[in-house]
């Protein structure tokens, strides 16, 4: 009974380690480096899987040295990982766009956008072709038709080159990838596929009067919105 119980615990531990490992991606930019933090949390670990399991589901990020069989854990301040030390590789949780890229890479997918208004009315728009590129290509948005729905197309919108989202890189407050003469993401306080700047924007300041043009002209103010959804379906 004791032997069976031990094997069961080992199997559960291995499954947990595998699950946690899949929640992190290696960032090669930090190879052979450690944080300059004087007191990093450091542990012995026989493998990458067990290193990530020690990190757990709430750990920000971690480093693993396969040669030394050691782990270090950080609060994920990448600007601090600057000390040269051979053998280290660092792993970070994938951001939302990394996940979308992995889901749409090499397959045909559609995008379903839904906005529920405060009144309870639901509006939607369906794009038959949808994908997002990788980080090296700045998470470029690609959309294609046919397009159907009750919101009205404002993302593909080939007739309005100054505000459509398709073909644009993803901008964040610390990454200006838009075509405007100013920093759209910093100005509007959120990430999106900004052009110059937007006629769609679902990441605005929630319930704020400063969230303008979530889906112009159908939904002109963020205060009208109760819920938004963006769903992907392979086909």
The sequence of SSEs as H and E is HEEEHEEEEHEEEHEEE
| CATH architectural group of the largest domain | Alpha-Beta Complex
- Please state the overall shape, judged from the principal axes of the Cα atoms: elongated
Q: Low-confidence segments, ≥5 residues, pLDDT <50?
A: 1-21
* Helical amount: 10-25%
Structural class: alpha+beta
Q: Strand order within the widest sheet?
A: 1-7-4-5-3
What's the story with the biggest beta sheet?
Answer: 5 strands, antiparallel
Task: Give a brief description.
With 235 residues, the chain is α+β, with helices and mostly antiparallel strands.
Model description:
The chain has 2 domains: 24-93, Hepatocyte Growth Factor; 98-234, Alpha-Beta Complex (Gamma Fibrinogen, Chain A, domain 1). The protein is an alpha+beta fold and 235 residues long. Mean pLDDT is 81; it is low at 1-21. The chain has a 5-stranded antiparallel sheet with strand order 1-7-4-5-3, with helices on one face. Helix 1 packs across helix 2. It is built from 4 helices and 13 strands. It is elongated.
